Amino acid sequence: RARRADATTALTRIAGQLERCYTQFGKYNDPDCAEYTRVKAGPKSEEGHYALTIAAVAGSTAAQSYQLTATATADGSQANDDTCDTFTLTHVGLRGSTPAPAAGADNPCW
After folding, report:
1. How many Cα atoms sit within 13 Å of 72 on the Cβ side?
2. pTM of the predicted structure, to 2 decimals
Protein backbone atom coordinates (compact mmCIF):
# COMPACT_ATOMS: atom_id res chain seq x y z
CA ARG A 1 0.00 0.00 0.00
CA ALA A 2 2.73 2.47 0.86
CA ARG A 3 4.25 2.21 -2.62
CA ARG A 4 0.97 3.28 -4.26
CA ALA A 5 1.90 6.85 -3.39
CA ASP A 6 4.65 6.55 -6.02
CA ALA A 7 1.92 6.30 -8.68
CA THR A 8 -0.40 8.99 -7.36
CA THR A 9 2.44 11.43 -6.77
CA ALA A 10 3.79 10.94 -10.29
CA LEU A 11 0.38 11.41 -11.92
CA THR A 12 -0.43 14.49 -9.87
CA ARG A 13 2.96 16.06 -10.63
CA ILE A 14 2.66 15.47 -14.37
CA ALA A 15 -0.94 16.76 -14.38
CA GLY A 16 0.30 19.99 -12.82
CA GLN A 17 2.93 20.35 -15.54
CA LEU A 18 0.33 19.72 -18.25
CA GLU A 19 -2.05 22.26 -16.74
CA ARG A 20 0.71 24.89 -16.71
CA CYS A 21 1.39 24.05 -20.35
CA TYR A 22 -2.28 24.48 -21.23
CA THR A 23 -2.41 27.81 -19.44
CA GLN A 24 0.67 29.08 -21.26
CA PHE A 25 0.12 27.65 -24.77
CA GLY A 26 -3.60 26.83 -24.95
CA LYS A 27 -3.06 23.11 -25.50
CA TYR A 28 -1.67 20.15 -23.61
CA ASN A 29 0.53 18.83 -26.38
CA ASP A 30 2.48 21.95 -27.36
CA PRO A 31 6.01 20.99 -28.49
CA ASP A 32 7.52 23.31 -25.87
CA CYS A 33 5.74 21.35 -23.14
CA ALA A 34 5.77 17.79 -24.47
CA GLU A 35 9.50 17.41 -24.11
CA TYR A 36 9.46 18.88 -20.61
CA THR A 37 6.72 16.58 -19.32
CA ARG A 38 8.24 13.55 -21.02
CA VAL A 39 11.65 14.22 -19.48
CA LYS A 40 10.20 14.88 -16.04
CA ALA A 41 7.85 11.90 -16.24
CA GLY A 42 10.31 9.46 -17.69
CA PRO A 43 9.13 6.00 -18.57
CA LYS A 44 8.78 5.16 -14.88
CA SER A 45 7.65 6.82 -11.68
CA GLU A 46 10.25 8.37 -9.42
CA GLU A 47 10.71 5.24 -7.33
CA GLY A 48 10.41 2.99 -10.39
CA HIS A 49 7.38 0.99 -9.23
CA TYR A 50 5.12 2.17 -12.09
CA ALA A 51 5.40 2.71 -15.85
CA LEU A 52 3.88 6.04 -16.92
CA THR A 53 2.02 6.96 -20.11
CA ILE A 54 0.26 10.05 -21.42
CA ALA A 55 -2.52 9.79 -24.04
CA ALA A 56 -5.55 11.72 -25.24
CA VAL A 57 -8.91 10.86 -23.71
CA ALA A 58 -10.90 8.61 -26.04
CA GLY A 59 -12.96 10.72 -28.45
CA SER A 60 -10.86 13.84 -27.93
CA THR A 61 -7.55 15.26 -29.10
CA ALA A 62 -4.21 15.43 -27.32
CA ALA A 63 -4.36 19.22 -27.59
CA GLN A 64 -7.53 19.40 -25.50
CA SER A 65 -7.32 16.40 -23.17
CA TYR A 66 -5.06 13.90 -21.49
CA GLN A 67 -5.25 10.69 -19.58
CA LEU A 68 -2.25 9.81 -17.47
CA THR A 69 -1.76 6.16 -16.55
CA ALA A 70 0.56 4.53 -14.04
CA THR A 71 0.83 0.76 -14.40
CA ALA A 72 2.67 -1.44 -11.93
CA THR A 73 5.84 -2.74 -13.57
CA ALA A 74 5.80 -6.48 -14.20
CA ASP A 75 9.16 -7.02 -12.52
CA GLY A 76 8.58 -4.58 -9.65
CA SER A 77 7.42 -4.95 -6.10
CA GLN A 78 3.93 -3.71 -6.99
CA ALA A 79 3.30 -6.41 -9.60
CA ASN A 80 1.33 -8.47 -7.07
CA ASP A 81 -0.87 -5.58 -5.92
CA ASP A 82 -4.16 -6.94 -7.23
CA THR A 83 -6.19 -4.18 -5.59
CA CYS A 84 -4.58 -1.37 -7.60
CA ASP A 85 -2.95 -2.55 -10.82
CA THR A 86 -3.23 0.78 -12.62
CA PHE A 87 -4.02 4.38 -11.72
CA THR A 88 -5.45 6.98 -14.11
CA LEU A 89 -5.93 10.74 -13.96
CA THR A 90 -7.59 12.88 -16.64
CA HIS A 91 -7.55 16.56 -17.56
CA VAL A 92 -10.84 17.07 -15.67
CA GLY A 93 -9.43 15.50 -12.51
CA LEU A 94 -11.20 12.16 -12.89
CA ARG A 95 -9.24 9.58 -10.91
CA GLY A 96 -9.57 5.91 -11.69
CA SER A 97 -7.95 2.57 -11.08
CA THR A 98 -8.20 -1.03 -12.11
CA PRO A 99 -9.78 -3.05 -10.93
CA ALA A 100 -12.48 -0.40 -10.45
CA PRO A 101 -14.10 -0.05 -7.03
CA ALA A 102 -17.70 -1.17 -6.57
CA ALA A 103 -20.38 1.30 -7.64
CA GLY A 104 -20.77 4.00 -5.01
CA ALA A 105 -17.66 2.93 -3.08
CA ASP A 106 -14.67 5.15 -2.45
CA ASN A 107 -11.61 4.35 -4.54
CA PRO A 108 -9.10 2.67 -2.17
CA CYS A 109 -6.23 3.33 -4.57
CA TRP A 110 -6.38 7.11 -4.39
Report:
1. 21
2. 0.83
